[in-house]
Each structure stands twice: as structure tokens, then as C-alpha cells.
Design a protein that fits this description.
The active site is at 327 (proton donor/acceptor). This protein is an alpha/beta fold and 366 residues long. It contains eleven helices and eleven strands. It has helices at 2-26, 73-86, 129-146, 156-162, 173-181, 189-195, 246-256, 284-298, 311-319, 342-349, 352-359; strands at 91-98, 104-110, 115-120, 150-151, 154-155, 163-168, 260-265, 267-269, 272-274, 302-303, 323-329. It starts with a helix and ends in a 7-residue tail after the last helix. The structure holds zinc ion.
């Protein structure tokens, strides 16, 4: 009996050490951020029962995120760690998967609430300004939380103790890097140039590093994906099979591991909001109502439709919850939205994360 207890104790020590090791690995920023000086305490959501963060816990609430710039994957990763460090416990992060070219895909949790909603951005590479927007939301909501400030009438402190907002700020880090820095920034540059007809200007790229359009790769309606090209390229290729890509697999696994009551999938083209294509019948009314609320706040007209293979219908069918696909900028042609549009985008969307969090409650806006 004593021997058994001894082995049990040893087992606990070993698994404890493994857990600490895992947390430490999770807490490391990307290799190219070695200059980053913040201490790397475990920030995983595995850490529970943290005290609610107060004004006295934070030295400054000056903005961390600068959204008025070409915002790279490296900018995002550094800002995620700075936010996680400053707003300790209010903001946590985890790596939910790895892109084709080996970049970590990050999720950020904001808030302490048991209720959960999901917001993601930059599924389409050239639409990277959506990352600027959601990182700006995380930063400003965190500051408002500790300062007990209202944002657009929302009591952020109260709201984020009831609801946690989960963000994946950059679903497609390879594609964003390709658009911003060119093929040399990726390890499969020769392949990318080949499937882009030798054109070194990747500013119009929407796909991932396999040339698959991630918003055509989801399993619901995949057979009917709109304008599928049948081969890898800068847009619309739905992939060799449903959910073939590591990025869509990471999102699907992450979503299935939560109890999200609502989702926003940020895209850029057209200042409108799509509210589903092939919805389950029981989501028709609630999706339309959600879109109406979102449309009234942003000024975006409502659109029914989209393509097969999109996140939107997959989420509706697999999770059974409403979701929206906002397109947050005037159509910019086949390239990134110019940064001059950012102020307008922010004005229309700065409180939308809170509006969505509030929506699943009994309307707590005061
Ligand atoms: Zn898009």
C-alpha cells in the first residue's frame, strides 16, 4: 500500500511538472520576438479563480495596439503578450493550432464570464485590417474594464463578468504575411509564385499558403462552394476536401470545445452584413433579428446569401447558434482596404463586440 502511494505521489509530481512545462511552452512568444521583455507567467485559461482585475492592479491603460498601421502577424503576437501581461487574468491567450507555414494561430479570451461568444478576423489574407479592428477592441475594452468606464453605453465591467469574448484575431497568418511582405516571407515561396502565375505582387491574395480559400473550405455546403476554381490560387479554391486546411481545422476544434452562443466573422468588402445562406429553420428568425440589431448600430444593410463552404453556415449547423459576417469597408478592389478607412471602420464597429456580448444577455445596456 505504501509503495502504491509513493508511486502515486511520484506520478503527481511528474504530471505537475509536465503541466508547468506545457504552460511555459504556451506562454512563449514567437521566436522572432526575443527582444520582448515582459515576464512570461502562465496565462493559459487553465489558470482559474483569479481575482477580478481592478484599476489599482494596472499602472497605465494607455493604448497598446496601434491599428493605424500595416498590422503584421508579429505586431499582433507582441500585442497579445503585452495585453495578457498588463491585463493579467482579464485577458488570456492560447495557441489553438498551426498554419500551413508553421505560424501559431492565437485565440484571446477577454472577460471572466461563463457565457461565451466568438469573434474572428483575417480569414481572407488581404482583409487584414479586420485584425486591426478586433485587436483595437480587445485593447479598448480592457482599459474600460479596469477604469470602470462605459463604452457606447455598455457597462464593460459588468458585461465582461457575465460574458467572455473569445477572439481569433488572425485566422490566416500565412496569407496576411504573404500579402504584406511577399512570397519570400514564406517557406514555400516557389510554390506560391507558381500558383500565382509568377506574379510577385500578392496584394490581392485571399487564400492560405496552400492556395485554398478558407471561407470555402468549411464542410457545410462545401459541394456548392461559389466560383470554385478547382485548383489552388489567390481566391475561391475550396480545397481538395472539406476542412482540408489546418486553419479551418483549428477553428472548428476550438469552436467545438466551447459553448459559443453567437459568432462574428469579420470580412471587409462592401459595408454590409451577411446573416447566413442555408440556415437551419430554427435559426432563421434569431439570425435576422441579430442582423437587424447589428445593422442598426453600424448602418450596414442586411444581405442574405454568401457561398457554400463558409464558416457562417458551418457554425449555424454544427453549433446551432446565430452568427453574422460583417463586411466592414467600402469595396476596395482586389487588394487590402486602405488605412485611411480605419477611422470610419472604428466608428462603425468600436462597440460591436460589446453589443454582441450584451445581445445574449437580457439587454443590459444602460
Ligand atoms: Zn472576406
Amino acid at each position: 500500500m505504501k509503495v502504491n502511494i509513493k508511486w502515486l505521489a511520484l506520478g503527481m509530481v511528474v504530471s505537475g511538472a509536465l503541466l508547468v512545462g506545457m504552460l511555459m511552452i504556451r506562454s512563449q512568444p514567437a521566436d522572432n520576438l526575443q527582444s520582448y521583455e515582459y515576464n512570461m507567467k502562465p496565462k493559459s485559461s487553465l489558470v482559474s479563480s483569479v481575482a477580478i482585475l481592478s484599476e489599482s492592479d494596472v499602472i497605465t491603460t494607455e493604448p497598446i495596439v496601434n491599428p493605424r498601421q500595416v498590422y503584421t502577424y508579429e505586431n499582433m503576437v507582441e500585442d497579445i503578450y503585452r495585453l495578457t501581461d498588463r491585463y493579467n487574468g482579464l485577458v488570456t491567450n492560447e495557441v489553438i493550432g498551426e498554419s500551413v507555414d508553421g505560424r501559431d494561430i492565437y485565440a484571446v479570451r477577454l472577460g471572466y464570464g461563463e457565457r461565451e461568444i466568438f469573434i474572428h478576423a483575417a480569414t481572407h489574407a488581404r482583409e487584414w485590417i479586420t485584425t486591426n479592428l478586433v485587436m483595437n477592441q480587445i485593447d479598448s475594452y480592457s482599459a474600460a474594464f479596469v477604469n470602470s468606464e462605459k463604452v457606447d453605453g455598455f457597462d464593460v465591467r459588468e458585461l465582461l463578468q457575465k460574458v467572455s469574448i473569445y477572439y481569433v484575431p488572425m485566422v490566416n497568418p500565412d496569407g496576411v504575411t504573404l500579402v504584406q511582405k511577399g512570397a519570400d516571407a514564406l517557406s514555400n515561396s516557389e510554390y506560391l509564385l507558381k500558383i500565382h502565375d509568377g506574379n510577385p505582387d500578392f496584394s490581392r491574395w485571399k487564400a492560405n499558403a496552400n492556395g485554398v480559400d478558407l471561407n470555402r473550405n468549411y464542410s457545410v455546403g462545401w459541394e456548392q462552394a461559389h466560383a470554385d476554381t478547382g485548383e489552388p490560387g489567390f481566391q475561391n479554391y475550396k480545397g481538395p476536401s472539406p476542412m482540408s486546411e489546418p486553419e479551418t481545422q483549428a477553428i472548428a476544434a476550438f469552436v467545438k470545445n466551447h459553448n459559443f452562443e453567437l459568432a462574428l466573422a469579420y470580412h471587409t468588402s462592401g459595408e454590409l452584413v451577411y446573416w447566413g445562406k442555408n440556415l437551419p429553420e430554427d435559426l432563421e428568425d434569431v439570425s435576422y433579428e441579430l442582423a437587424t440589431v447589428f445593422g442598426e448600430e453600424t448602418g450596414y444593410p442586411l444581405h442574405r446569401g454568401g457561398s457554400g463552404g463558409m464558416f457562417s453556415d458551418w457554425f449555424a449547423h454544427e453549433i446551432g447558434a446565430p452568427n453574422l459576417t460583417p463586411e466592414i469597408a467600402p469595396y476596395a478592389g482586389p487588394g487590402p482596404v486602405p488605412l485611411e478607412n480605419y477611422n470610419r471602420i472604428w466608428q462603425q464597429n468600436f462597440s460591436m463586440g460589446l453589443l454582441m456580448a450584451d445581445y445574449i444577455l437580457e439587454d443590459t445596456k444602460k
